[in-house]
Amino acid sequence: MKRILICITTYLPSIGGAELATQAIMKHLPGYVFDVVTSRYDAAHRCFDATLPEQEIMDNATIYRVGGRMTFATLLVPKILLPLAIARRALRLQRAHPYDVILAVQASQAAGGAWLFSLFNPRVPFILNIQEGNDLMRQSFLKRWFRKILLRRARIVTVLSTYLGNIVRNAGVPSQHIQHIPQGVDSTLLAPSINSGAERTFIRQTHHISSTETVIISVSRLVGKNGIDILLRAFAALNVKPMRLLLIGDGPERAYLESLAYKLGCATRVVFLGSILPRDVTRYLHAADIFVRPSRSEGFGIAFLEAMAARVPVIATNVGGIPDFVHDGETGLLCAPNSPIAVATAIERLARDTALREHISANAARIVVERYTWDIVASQYRKLFETVMS
Asked: What is the pTM of this model?
């Protein structure tokens, strides 16, 4: 069986788009052996978790973690030493069982380790995956220089969206070395369970939400780029029938956003749920009426696709990779960024127009089935791996 080395800065149990996508791709490619080299760094709490095992098996992958010894040097690992630690571990593994492909997830510190590994093993095809959600053109010179070094070394660069593809192309990567492979969604979202009606009722009762209230939901890390402050301002300005806002996710801006909700006078109608398990996110989506995330930047936006798969109409901003799948008036509503008024108007429009909600929901679910299930995405990676190994 062919063996694939994956380098990713953080991995499960840290939960993020890149981590969950990597797990899903591996699970849908049972014909390969995967080794994942990552760190013990906990991005959510910005510290090491020394309790994580150095090696363990998850699904069809073996996870190898580096770092975690609390010394002065390891305080610098996320920025300086992690590429060296990743490369060292990967080179040791390569001597034990040679790799057929190396995949670096995101242009991060782990990708720097993959780059070093590639210098010592130039015959192993190096694939770099670009899926960053930050505004890449506004990053520091050092970060842009680092990404350019990685791009020049990679044999193939995979991108999640047209937006990211254009950035990579403008950095000098020829079009024939760029492959557009999006993220996917779990197909179970497309087929609500027979208990979804009961779950919807249970969740609403748990949060004391009446059957006449419209439930707005957002699934988002609480950081500036995701625009939750804009959503709160829009929500506070709404003048339609009773509504409740459920916010799933955590992050460094949580305290600020909770304070903002109080200042805007809508705190009693906003529920901060924090981080919850993916299976519970699905239950909350099935209990919601409208999904909103007014992002300031977005490399792709898997949370939107998950809502679309669950037949929850979405409201998004016309930024980054979102327009690849949110088509205004067809698969969702698009707003200008940084505009609470535009977001509030879109919410009122969907809340009042049942026919529009049903039209958008049906179209959105169809596009997910046609392009964005994990089976489809994994088959694209399988074809890519076979191509670079031939």
From this structure: 0.90
